[in-house]
């Protein structure tokens, strides 16, 4: 029985360590110190939500980016705009390479 308790404690510590590791990157992002790589991490779900929101809210839509950001979990207007620009650039690069 003590072994089970020890392994559960180890799991809890691993979870708290990963959370702790994320906090310094958040603060460095706020300070603007080499935060671009941490801030640019997007999950597949977030990318799909962004693409779907861009289709749902065309360019003519009032407050388009605010609506897009609302549809993308955990991302701001500026993060969505930046990701869109990167996706567009990547798409164009691939298109020109073919």
Give an account of the 3D structure.
This protein has five helices and no strands. By secondary structure, it is mainly alpha-helical. It folds into two domains: 1-35; 42-98, Homeodomain-like (Arc Repressor Mutant, subunit A), CATH 1.10.10.60. α3 (44-56) runs antiparallel to α4 and α4 crosses α5 (77-97). It is globular, with a radius of gyration of 19 Å.
Task: List the SSEs and their pairings.
Elements: H1 2-31, H2 36-39, H3 44-56, H4 64-71, H5 77-97
Helix pairs in contact: 3-4, 4-5
GO cellular component, one term: cytosol
Region (Disordered): 1-40
InterPro entries: Homeodomain-like_sf, SANT/Myb, SANT_dom, Zuotin/DnaJC2
Count the strands?
Answer: 0
**Helix-strand category:** mainly alpha
Examine the secondary-structure arrangement and name the CATH architecture of the largest domain.
Orthogonal Bundle
First and last CA, distance: 61 Å
CATH superfamily placement of the largest domain: Homeodomain-like
Kindly report the CATH topology of the largest domain: Arc Repressor Mutant, subunit A
| Number of spatially distinct domains | 2
Calculate Rg over CA atoms. 19 Å
The portion of residues assigned to helices is over 70%
Q: Provide the low-confidence segments as ranges.
A: 2-35
